Input
Amino acid sequence: MFSDYAALIVLLPVIAFVFTLFLGKKLYSGGALLPIAAIAGSFIISLGIFLEIYPNGMVQQSLPWFAGMNLGILIDPLAVVMLMMVSFVSLLIHIYAVGYMAHDPARPRYFAETSLFTAAMLSVILSDNILQFFVSWELVGLCSFLLIGFWYHKPSAAAAAKKAFLVTRVGDVLFLAGIVLLYVNMKLLVDNGTLVVESQSFILQFKTMFEAIPLINGTQLTYIALLFFGGAVGKSGQFPLHGWLPDAMEGPTTVSALIHAATMVTAGVYLVARTFPMFVATPSTISAGVPDALLIVTYVGGFTAIFAATMGLVMNDIKRVLAYSTVSQLGYMMLALGTAGTVLGAKAVGISMFHLLSHAFFKALLFLCAGSVIHALGTNDIREMGGLFNKMKITGTTMLIAALALAGIGFPFASLGMPIMNIGTAGFFSKDAIIEGALEYGEVTHDMIPYGFAIIAALLTSIYIFRLWFMTFTGKPRSERHSHESPGVMTGPLMILAIFALLFGFSQIGFYGYLEKNFELMDVNIAVHEGEAFHPSAFLILLPVIVGVLGFLISYAIYNKRMIDMSKIVSSQNPLYKLLYNRYYEPKIGANLIGVKLTHDVVAQSGEFIDRKIIDWLIIDNIISNTLLKLGEIIRKLQTGVVQNYASITILGVALLLVLLKLKYGGT
Amino acid sequence: MSLYSYLLISIIIFTIGVYGIITQRSGIKILMCIELLLNSANLNLVAFSSYNGNATGQIFAIFSIAIAAAEAAIGFAILVALFRLRDTINLDNINILRW
Output
């Protein structure tokens, strides 16, 4: 019954967007209620569909769109869990925003844009073809741009919005190129009869696409997969297109929580998961037994995980630490798709998506807690915070839970053979599975680098997140700012998210089982390298937890007990600190090297040279223009302006015509 | 008289008009030559009308004369205005729009 109304999942927030945008000022609370109601509706429909199709169903609806394309809905296990997560997190953040944005005069615009964003994201998730996916994907990018620049009167916000738009555009162009290449290949297969489709209009549907994968030339398939991955790199802030995500923190904190932590940035991971059969099917030329595309996904993801975490260690802006944490965790998800995809096949999607969902809960929670702190203090700088726990008990507790979840604290009783189940936070279950997948990948391919990436990043993650927590909530207040606990409309969502951050992990087994079937439902077989059963030693099982606790202890020693004097390390004299604090000079490289040197000095200047010096010289100074001028000088003399001359020539012409007629037809 | 002689007279008048337009420099004379061209055409119309036993040509001739009258009135008015302004109606001297 719910599946008949699947289209409403997207349409409700769109309607809310239109009404809030135009009538928001007249509605209660800046128009917040309408989007909240609409997104609640989307969530209820998503939940209803989940209950209907669990465990083996799918929803497929499709209608022709234009010139060989279709509009459609595909809700498989992968999509339905994402739908529920996005609509649920979005709902909580919208409720929270009622409190957080209470004093902002532009609230109608805020709620309209977040509502449109939610609609676009939901549309990305339930697209049944790659073109519709791309259109929604672009809409998501637009909303991100609008919301980062929400306080557009701040020059830094306007610049950050522009940066986000331009950097993600690089990825989007690659993605579009991938779609074109895919279409060309599919069309070729359809035209020579290798691929049989019911109707030409459904050629870009995921289902058709998966059917065609074994038929497409391997090299072409690698190109397509890598171009798609390029889009994912842009959207999910992977190295080297990660720079926009920390800068995007210029928007309101709720936007950061909604878009730049929980939902939009996961679209890139979702894209790779959605087109996963393609990545698995690419040939292995670089490393034996590892599909090329997955190898690149692994290394980009793993490198990003560790690279972003190092920067998270030294940032002083509370939101920026979380932003680098997001980049790092998205790297984990990519790493999971790459490593587990190689050794475990379709199960990798479950592992990655599980981390995506648990990350969405605890990262949204972290951001909302940060928002609560910022709301109370009016500053983003953790050096000006401290000792807040006594005043903000709910925020402090929920943020500690989120930090524990991010650091992956828990204990693997069952994995060590004890008769109790594994107990831990959401992040413990999801991150452990990723690290375990990387370890198994290392065993099978004898390439332990991804595992190293994962373990070191886990240690760094734990250090920076507890540094953040200790700096904010413990010790003595380091500034005279007044602080207070946030209102109930803000702490309510915090508590709900904290429950998910604590307990979501226990759904692990059921979650994997459900998502594993995803591609079977689509009639795709993913080959798995079956090795002998894998039993790591107790030390390796405990290692992720050990590094998590170690990170906690390091942060505790440094930032709570102040046992180590940090002034030597944290100084502009220390080259390593300088490198990290300046974010590996990425903003400088982006602005000065790519922006000024490359784009302006090389491309624009040479363009100007060609235009001014060569083309203008050719056209204006010399050949073409001068020739025309001289010719004109001659021809204009013909126009004497004396009527008699014209009349004479006319009569001469008529006389000539008469003579010619006479000669041709004769007679008298 | 046959049709032929009417047409002959018409051609003679037309040629005189054309010759006048090309050679004369005075605006008045050129206007008069244009009237000659019109009248030669009218003569043709009437001659063919009588030859075919059909009144249409004569009606056309009357229209043509009426239009010629209007055209002459406007033309001479322009020339009078021009003369007041420039003290000449020699078209060679009226050339400010020329290059």
About this structure: The longest helix of chain B spans residues 56-86. Residues 35 and 71 of chain B are 9 Å apart (CA to CA).
